[in-house]
Design goal:
The structure holds two protein chains of two kinds. In chain A, 27% of the residues lie in helices and 21% in strands. Chain A contains twelve helices and twelve strands. In chain A, the strands form three sheets. Chain A has a five-stranded antiparallel sheet with strand order 4-5-8-6-7. In chain A, β10 and β11 form a beta hairpin. The longest helix of chain A has 17 residues. Chain B is an alpha+beta fold. Chain B has three domains: 130 residues, Aldehyde Oxidoreductase, domain 4; 185 residues, Aldehyde Oxidoreductase, domain 3, CATH 3.90.1170.50; 307 residues, Aldehyde Oxidoreductase, domain 4, CATH 3.30.365.10. Chain B is 25% helix and 25% strand. Chain B is built from 17 helices and 26 strands. In chain B, the strands form six sheets. In chain B, strands 3-5-1-12-9-10-11 form a seven-stranded mixed sheet. In chain B, β10, α5 and β11 form a beta-alpha-beta unit. Classes of the chains: A alpha+beta, B alpha+beta. The structure holds flavin-adenine dinucleotide. The site of flavin-adenine dinucleotide (FAD) has 30 residues of chain A, from β2, α2, α7 and β8.
Chain lengths: 326, 710
Amino acid sequence: MKQFQYIRPATQQNVLDAITKSGTKIIAGGTNLVDLMKRGVTAPDKLVDINHLPLKGITPTKSGLHIGALALNSVVSENALVLQKHPLLSLALKAGASPQLRNMATVGGNMMQRTRCTYFYDTTMPCNKREPGTGCGAMEGYNRMHAIFGASQQCIAVHPSDMCVGLAALDAVVIIAGKKGERRIPFVDFHRLPEDHPETDNHLAKDELIVGVEIPDNNFAKNSYYLKVRDRQSYAFALVSVAAALDISGGLIKQARLAMGGVAHKPWRLYDAEKSLVGKAPTEENFKVAAQIAMQGAKAYEYNAFKLKLAPASISEALKHAAGVV
Amino acid sequence: MEDKISNKNSSKGPSRVDGRLKVTGAAKYSAEYALPGMAYGVLVGSTITKGTITSIDTKKAETAPGVLAVISHFNCPKVPGYDSADPAVKGPLKIFHDNKIVYNGQPIAVVVADSFERALFAAALVKAEYNAEKHHTNLKDNLTKAVAPHDDAVYSRGMPEAWKTAAVTVEQEYILPSEVHHPMELHAIIARWDAADKISVWDKTQGVKDTQSNIAKLFGIPVDNVQVHSKFVGGAFGSALQVWPHEVAAIIGAKVVKRPVKLVLSRADMATSVGYRPHTWQKIAIGASADGKLVGVVHEAAGQTSTFEDFAEGPSDVSRQLYACPNVSTSNKMVSLDIGSPTWMRGPGPATGTFALESAMDELSYKLNIDPIELRLRNYAETDPESGKPFSGKNLKDAYRLGADNIGWSDRSQTPGSVTKDGWLVGYGISGGVFGADREPVTLTATMMADGKLVLQTAVSDIGPGTATAMVAVAAETMDMPADKIRFDLGDSAFPAAPQQGGSTITSSVGSAVYMACRDLKEKFQQLIGNGGTDKPDYAKVLKQHNLQRLQVTADSKAGKEVDTYAMYSWSVHFVKVLVNPATGVVKLDKVTCVADNGRIISPKTARSQIIGGAIMGIGMALMEEAVIDDRYGRVINSNFADYHVPVNADIPQIEALFVNKPDYNINPIGAKGMGEISLIGMAAAVANAVYNATGKRVRDLPITPDKLI
Ligand SMILES: Cc1cc2nc3c(=O)[nH]c(=O)nc-3n(C[C@H](O)[C@H](O)[C@H](O)COP(=O)(O)OP(=O)(O)OC[C@H]3O[C@@H](n4cnc5c(N)ncnc54)[C@H](O)[C@@H]3O)c2cc1C
């Protein structure tokens, strides 16, 4: 591990000033960044600690719920407003990592966590994400955990977060601070697909800071579910995960939201499958149809072909739980 | 046998004598010692798999802050034991000995610095150039190269082909991936040269005496000039049964920098540097008559080993004696690959072997439509089928009954996939386990101190099962005195000789020595007291009356004629109830019941913990453990706890540990046999069999991950 400097600027403005310099990196909970530094995947000259900034609040707004970027994953998952308005987010958070990690991990850090692809982590291996131009170790390697949607010739890694799958399904908005003030972008547009630049995970500029996310109020609280399929019952990344949210009234689905984790370089929204459910009854048959629609365009590699079966099975299973028809 | 411990079994036995030290952090492990002037070593590993080192650039590292030395084969002082070894004979890796690379991750240099962080930083600056050669790391692709390591590896009785003539047959292949020991405590050593020919080490080891003699041999110094301290060991499971290259590196480092050197392996190093259970291919062919009597068994096994060391676990040996069967042939072969050496890992041999044999027996039970327990009873071996000798003690029928009642076996359906609960498929499985029960030579002193405290000393290690606790239990019972007045000293080469803690031999071996020493000590007290003394003397008072500071006896304990008379084993039966999600393939264990038939239980609390620990390790073997090598690079790609999965609390159901608890006085005077191995052996097959019962899907390649069930 390289020697580095550590600073803790007093204000948000001071943080924004500090991160304009190259070689700097924001540190929040440190649960991902420090691992990456120990493995030599990233080697910042200077860490900019933001943990003291007043970005921890969880507060209702006119039309939604604001969650600060420094709110801890554990705190968000147990927050009364979150549990009442967006139980899906609580479930997604609790499906991630372990209680110890969630006690350190922040909302902003969770969004910015990097892929768990083993080729990305091992600096002796080729990886276009870590070192552009070196090739993709996973494409013809051990790609059991890898993408079935939206991959490129450059990279087939997946985004590992559970929380982000929940936020993508819930139409959240990301609030970003930069030199020129604040901007807001839809959560689904925050992360990007690898295309020819797998080294760039998302649309946050190097000199910007995530200050929070906002979830618009919705009617999904009664019928939502987060299903995570993994190799052990806790403390494992998703083979696939599904966030399912339904607005059911009069026996019919009025609105549906579906997003998947463990299948793409970003939380993967299933728009066509959502549309297919609108106006339909919440039945297993309809869920299965939606799941099939969701799988259009899926492509597997040597070790992850099982996801082509596991993903649709998980989608309809999650929808059944959301609808309460299990 | 007249001379034996009483079989009262009245108490629950003592609580862990070192429990408070462990939970408060006061128990000091090897890495936790701080010696004056201590420096720190960090290893640099090869990034190629096979070939030669052409150059190593150490300049940057050498000039980095705090660096004291960078040692590689270019500048390593001679290790006398390496030079005197016959180069034609295979053996453990000789670290920094020559320019050859024989596996990926092989240590090529050690950086010694005045702090761990500085050593770690400098290690990243060491750059080697290689001449890489084509490597082979894939077992399946190289199975045709399998060879038997020695004559004993191949066995046959009766007619090898007999199984083919049977009414019902099963012929299948079973695959076990390589598994890493990954004890909680990282391997660590602190080495200090006390003089030109004197070494002290604080080292994680399962055998202080073996480590002592091996270090003496390697460095060409008298055995008594080596001191090995290993008071506490945080798990090992076989990974600390030998002196590994990193231990030699620390001793060399200490010599070069003339300071004590601490070297702690990283978690990633643990996957390549201290052995593993070899990835093993097995084939079983088994035949039975229509009424379920075994006609013949053929069991073949081939496992990975390195190119520089021969190692074969002996998985197929279990088929020689688990069941009464006239025609049995077995073979254990190895395939040399460009990987680090495997080693013993909890239940070595039968843990792998029972996965194949007990899965095949389960397959047979469905073909025959006979309950799996009933099938086992129909082939119950009353005497050892291999040697013909009587068993020293075997009460396996009691174990089947106890376990079946406890798990609710009567609720099991013989038709796979026919029972559901809340949308989950329900299944039950069973598997047996067996491991040889040996008794090794032990010398032990028992000293009654003036204050009435009893001190027992021998050079055994305690890698976690609670050896000291069990030994105190034996002493308390034999001396008829309270456990809290007894101290058991272990983990230091200065004490009298004891074996390594491996192969489930310690309770039998050291426990017998404790019993003998205490018995003799008590006898000495009786002599002092003379006629008319009470049965329960006040030892301190007697010493005082006779003006004695202490009273000491030394016991030499070892196996006797019984090894010729009896076949001696510990047995286990594992019962598993699983739930399987039909949509996602997720397996959840609902309940596990383990029954051990291992003689008398002398320390019920630690015995229970031992069974639970082994069962959990078996659950890991069944459901998630797998060290993956990317054959293109020859490199282990999941050498961390995020990617190499071991069970977490959420994976573990209620586990019941039951004991037949019938003393086996034919093996030793305390009637107790080991259980470290049998707690694990058979678990994987029990889970696989339960998954089959739940789903109708037979998984023959571990681990049973969700993708294999959808
Ligand atoms: C063993 C293990 C298992 C795990 N399992 C799971 C799992 O199952 N599911 C899951 O979802 N996650 C899992 N995680 C990941 C965990 O959720 C993340 O590590 C955590 O959320 C990161 O948050 P942090 O605050 O610690 O981020 P840090 O490590 O501090 O930072 C991560 C990155 O975010 C950047 N950053 C942090 N805050 C901001 C901000 N406000 N604005 C801009 N950039 C910022 C940092 O610069 C850094 O690049 C696991 C982690 C580990 C170590």
